[in-house]
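FAQ: What does the model actually see?

It sees only this:
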Amino acid sequence: MLQPYLDSDMQSRWFDFGGDTIVRADQYVRLTSDRPSQQGWLFSRIPLTATNWEIEVEFKIEGAGNLHGDGMAMWLTKQRATQGPVFGSTDRFEGLGIFIDTYKNNRPGVVFPLVMAMMGDGQTTYDNANDGKSNELASCSARGIRGAHTPTKARLTYFQDAYLKLDLQYKSAAEWTECFNLTDVKIPSVTYLGFSAHTGELSDSHDIISVDTHNLYNANPDQSRPGDDGDGGARSGQTSTGKDWDPAARGGKKGGSWAGFLLKTILFIIVVGGAYIGFTLWRASQRRGSRF
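And it is asked to produce this:
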């Protein structure tokens, strides 16, 4: 998902958005403005069904004044497009939630902003009073991620039965900082990718700049990212460039090569057949002409 975000009919083919979300086609998808009591969300229409994948999102959190809140979230859940109290989305979710919490309620000894992962089972409530302390799967402090002077990005990598890893870029361009790297994490096989944000009495603007997803075919993600030399992933596509954003794609390069081979074979047969028919008709006309 890249600028201008919307199609010619002012809709997104691959994403739904709602709440207080606004779209400025030349800049961002703004989940919340720098105003109190706002909630906004952005969710994919098509589920992510790939087994191994990587998602990279560029976002921006900023606002006026010294006091700010509350934060934003990235979702990979069975539920979608449901506004609620957990950073703008529904509570008791099933799947993975990653929260960028910019306001400290009650976490002594923890530096905020806090980036935290929670695996929801569909029944457990988010521990809002303690900033998710009882729900924490993994976390890291990310002081400077709000109002950063460099593009802020999150890169989430998942290889089934191997690991779940989150890297952040906010200190300087192209400098990635590992937030967590977990093993034995099971994400539901069919989930929707989403983003949401929430403001209370304090506020910030929370923007999504771009979203890029691609499949992985190697447990080493450095060999699977687009642009690398290894046998890697194929981009799922980006709506704003005219390509389909297909989170369910599994075929990758192998499927594409067979499809190309089959197409070339069919075209070759058509060309040869057409040439043969043309030659046959020409020869018949020559024979008829020789009789007179």
